[in-house]
Design a protein that fits this description.
SH3 type barrels, alpha+beta, 193 residues, four-stranded antiparallel sheet
Amino acid sequence: MAEVKKKSIIDDENETRWYVVNTYSGHENRVKDNLEKRLETMGIQDSLFRILVAEEPEIEIKNGKQVEKMKNMFPGYVFVEMKMTDEAWYVVRNTPGVTGFIGSSGGGAKPFPVSPDEMESILRRMGQSDKKVTVDFAVGDLVRVQTGPFSGMEGKVSSMNDQTQVANVLIMLFGRETPTDINYNDLQKVENE
């Protein structure tokens, strides 16, 4: 009779999952570069796949002009998609700038992966998600914002970007219609009563 191997949620070397690596704050991109170089030199391309610094565009006003810059959504953290083999774990953990994995109790214990739903939410915010959200609103419809600083406010959808899954909504702020980019997931169509 064949022996049945128990499948561990945490320590399955054959499963590709996302993990969070703690770095020195401000060194996230340097750690990403270091990991990408080590990926080649250490020959772990079959265990380490994507290295991601979670950033989103932010509009800043400098000298009266709008300037778009990238804002780190999680300072001090880098997301790594990998198979948790001993070799890959060792290489990532010992990369310059890395202080450890989140979800590891230390003492050689391997970390817990990020839940697929949480990672999907992060990838969607960055416009890198493969999963598409189906929505029941279109350009011209009245929608209500469900979360965030504009929660509870209503506005008219002026444009939609299905690739990034972001709608531009005209919200009344200080007596003016203000165009605001909001993720599809955070909007709900207001039904006419």
